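Work Package 3 (structural annotation) set out to generate three-dimensional models for the target panel prioritized at the project kickoff. During this period the team completed the workflow that converts sequence records into discrete structure tokens, so that structures can be stored uniformly alongside our sequence database. As a representative example, we reproduce one entry of 136 residues exactly as it appears in the project archive.
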Amino acid sequence: SNKAEEFRRDVEKYKTRAAYFEREYNNSKQLNSEMTKVMSQMTQAVAERSDEKSDVASQNRSLQKQLEVKMQEVRSTKVDRDEIKKQLDALQSAGNFYQDKYRDAQEELRSLRHEHSISSATCSKLKLRVESLQSE
């Protein structure tokens, strides 16, 4: 009877343990299922991000090419601008040179006209003098 009582307690103890382990097993199965779902979602998210990254990388390459083309255009435009500036400077120098020559020529013309008017006046006086001498 004592043995039967002890046996019953052992059976109860094992039943309790079995119930505990069954709960743990079911909890573990549920956790495993949730983790599998989460991992699946993470894998999908990583794949989507990877696609986005490759799209972004492709856009970056495209933008980089466009930037290089624009930079080349800017360099070319600067070279053209510098060339035109050199031509402009040369034309301005030539313009200044010819302006100076024109001023010198104007000055010389003014001086020659002045000398001519003096010479004409002198010549007129001399003619009058000669005429007056001839008439005496």
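Residues 61 and 67 are 10 Å apart (CA to CA).
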